Amino acid sequence: MADKNTASQSQIRVVVKIFGGLRTQTFPELGSFPLPKDATIDRLLAEISQRSPELISQIEDGLAAGYLNILVNGRNIRFLGNRATVLRNADTIAFLPPVGGG
């Protein structure tokens, strides 16, 4: 039993949501996502990369071009720790590409 408790204490679950045009690329929504305790946005991106190289390619392109926003609990990571932002259990991470209209 101690091993199971130790494992659960060393892991967190975050909710990952993908919006806009990215959503149609493989995952409509990733949902609950297990990560090691004190994982960062970079670690999350590495995990997504293993699940979907096509999706991570689009995410990385959007980040490099400066038009993709990543929010943690509604706050842009640019105002937190960027890709080094530490994630906590039950955080919601949203990937938001630009939206146009009028």
Characteristics:
about 100 residues; globular; alpha+beta
Question: What this model shows, in words?
Answer:
With 102 residues, the chain is α+β, with helices and mostly antiparallel strands. The protein has a single domain, classed as Ubiquitin-like (UB roll) (Roll), CATH 3.10.20.30. Helices cover 31% and strands 25% of the residues. The chain has helices at residues 2-9, 41-51, 53-65, and strands at 11-18, 31-36, 69-72, 75-76, 92-96. It has a 5-stranded mixed β-sheet. A hairpin with a 2-residue loop joins strand 3 and strand 4. Helix 2 crosses helix 3 (53-65). The longest helix has 13 residues, at 53-65. The protein is globular, with a radius of gyration of 14 Å. The N and C termini lie far apart (57 Å). The model has no long low-confidence stretch (mean pLDDT 83).
Brief synopsis:
The protein has helices at 2-9, 41-51, 53-65, and strands spanning 11-18, 31-36, 69-72, 75-76, 92-96. By secondary structure, it is of the alpha+beta class. A hairpin with a 2-residue loop joins strand 3 and strand 4.
